[in-house]
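Structure tokens please, single chain.
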Amino acid sequence: MKRPGVRRTPGARPPVALVVPALLAVAFLALPLVGVLVRTRWAELAGHLGSPATVEALRLSLLVSFWALGLSLLLGVPLAWLLARVSFPGKALVRSLILLPMVLPPTVGGVALLLAFGRRGLLGPWLERTFGVTLPFHTSGAVVAATFVAMPFLVISLEGALGGLRPRYEETAASLGASPVRVFLTVTLPMVAPGLAAGAALTWARALGEFGATITFAGNLPGTTQTLPLRVYLLLQEEPEAATSVSLLLLAIAMGVLIALRGRWTGTPVTRRARPAPEGPPDGPAPEPGSVGAVPEDRRWALHAEVGGFTRLVLDAEPGTTIAVVGPNGAGKTTLLRALLGLTPRAHATLRLGDTDVTALPPYRRHVAWVPQDGALFPHLSALANTAYGLRAQGVGRAEARREARTWLDRLGVGHLAHRRPSQLSGGQAQRVALARALAARPRLLLLDEPLAALDQTTRARVRHTLRTHLAGFGGVCLIVTHDPVEAVSLAQRVLVLDEGRAVQDDSPAEVTRHPRSPWVARMLGRNAWPGTATPEGLALDGGGTLVAAEPPPAGTPALAIVAPEAVALHRERPGGSPRNVWPGTVREITAGGSRLRVLVSSDLAPDLVAEITPQAAAELGLADGVPVWTSVKATETTIVPL
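Here you go.
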């Protein structure tokens, strides 16, 4: 009977030339293990394992392996973090030195340990003279040998897990006021716990089975350095049957560790399957405007920033100002936010918040809260613990921090979700929790990087309403990176337009809407935008062709021509009459926009342009992709903006 869900793909049978060698490899690796099982005298197993010498060796093996694991965690975890997070000269050489014990013959490792820590070694005489410590032929020597060969397993596993962890979680924690050590202990380690557990298990198992370095460096002294592998070596010469029984014990322990790890050798963080949010309204009730109340004067902070590097501008804003930052991809929007946070080498910001210059302060002391596009909620914490994180990082007591965090969650309409993990929240709920977390941290500057981009239209409208309500009561300055003109107009008092790291325009939303100075912004607003150079009659377009305008600027002035799509007329024959700008073209695309259609027309005599017409007009003209048409624009319908 075929199992449900299992499908055989026709023609997918593996080639015999590969299957046979693979099966031989499995047999080659499995046969020695089968030999141990077959040759074990099961009736005598309990007696062999229960002998006093074997029990003592097992006790010593556990002691040595757990001490080795502890030292590996103490020293290896910081080392793995350094390799994963810090760039420094000679990093490849350091990683090679860490991997060396994994490929070095164990006896050579033992000789190296003798030459380093032996009585005639590099450090041995000093250790004995200063601390009275002699490592060779002592239990501590067995611990050192096991740590030497086992620690690389922990470092490599944890480095892989740290490499797979996005730094955005750690950067967000720093923006909430958490110091680097606190970020490491409360965010980094919990999120790489699967990798840490896998590395620790492999390290312990390798230390438990260590033989060559131990016998060379620490000897084989019963009760002192004779661990279980060394006991097997001794029994092979005296009682081979007992050696087989003890080998079976070590084999069972190793197999148990591997089964528990289930193949997670690299220590990659495990992604838990998210449980869907419950049915019903996804975001809860939104608070009414005015629920935040007035902001005291001592909690109002103006902004002054001078940014240099890839993004170059000077930014001043009064308390309570919200600035929408817009521009094409690569314009420097995120670089600006990261410069204000102090997180990027691409740009540097001289930053003053209120009366305090925070330029020289690390990110966690700047009081600049950041909400990245995906919210970056810590997956191992509940919504309440996420929101209280910044307050706890700033030294606020647990009870007070949770009380204030719950207040913020209630204000944003997600208080009833306080005990849920991020995987149990919908997109809109998660964004509200991320915003509550940022506001609860008592920031002086709030940075939102496309906070609504991942939401559907209905949820976005609800969250936008909530965001507008609470930004009205925020005493600092807020910068919102967005590609949505509705967000820019509805949330911000100013719109900052960036292009190639420069501030192209910094005006009110109404002014930017009427007179956009960037082709990208004009197109974002749904306008036709063509850069060019002013002539006595209009504009010589950079893309070819000329445009006649009613009021052109002085000749030679770089300028931008703005034409609303509804001002573009379409004809099947060349029009007569008053239009000054007439071009032949071809329909390339027709899309619906509400109750009207947007028609993209390309032409050899002018740049592509978009016309907006009714469905009835499109039917009367017989428009379709590839249909030749004529376009016309009146000179009085053209706005020329000097650049």
